[in-house]
Design a protein that fits this description.
Blueprint (H helix, E strand, L loop, with lengths): L3 H18 L6 E5 L4 H14 L1 E10 L6 H5 L6 E9 L12 H18 L6 H16 L5 H10 L1 H18 L1
Helix pairs in contact: 1-2, 2-6, 4-5, 5-7
Length: 174
């Protein structure tokens, strides 16, 4: 849905049902990509509201990455993120670190380097997908959704500079 709140609410309803029927030690896994922060914020709200936290996020080649609309985009998205979640009741909740970037940067670097060493050219939006997924991973474990969303908001400007830094570094190495 193009309306952010409708998207969040509908997805949250699906995930609440998944939470209801999933065993306590079960996994919820889905693929996702989005080029705007609002989409990622909606995912975070829907997941936490349904009682899930992110335990891993792995970039993979996107389905339909050669479709005409994607190829015509200025910054086409060629990656999806496989997001792996568990019930929050089974996870250790912890306050989002003041130095959130120190916690997520090593994984971001590893995932980008792995893809580039395999010959993948990453668009700015491909880098965004990796950065946002890794940022949401620890935020989804915050003690409250309010705290998680506050950290996401505080880091919004830095998100863009981190994406630019990793994207430009890749362009210089090609």
């Amino acid at each position: 849905h193009s309306d952010e709140s409708a998207f969040r609410d509908r997805l949250g309803a699906v995930w609440r049902e998944c939470h209801r029927v999933l065993k306590d030690d079960g996994l919820l896994v889905f693929s996702y990509h989005h080029s705007r922060t609002e989409g990622w914020r909606s995912i975070l709200e829907a997941l936490m509201g349904a009682g899930f936290g992110i335990v891993a996020a792995h970039p993979v080649k996107a389905e339909m990455s050669v479709a005409a609309p994607k190829l015509q985009a200025k910054e086409p998205i060629d990656l999806d993120i496989l997001v792996v979640c568990r019930k929050l009741s089974a996870l250790e909740r912890r306050a989002a670190s003041d130095d959130l970037w120190a916690a997520v940067t090593p994984t971001i670097v590893h995932q980008i380097e792995r893809l580039r060493s395999a010959g993948r050219r990453l668009s700015r939006n491909d880098v965004r997908i990796i950065v946002m997924a890794q940022l949401l991973r620890p935020l989804s474990l915050a003690p409250s959704m309010r705290e998680a969303l506050a950290h996401l908001e505080v880091n919004a400007v830095q998100v863009e500079s981190v994406i630019d830094r990793f994207h430009l570094a890749g362009l210089n190495n090609v």
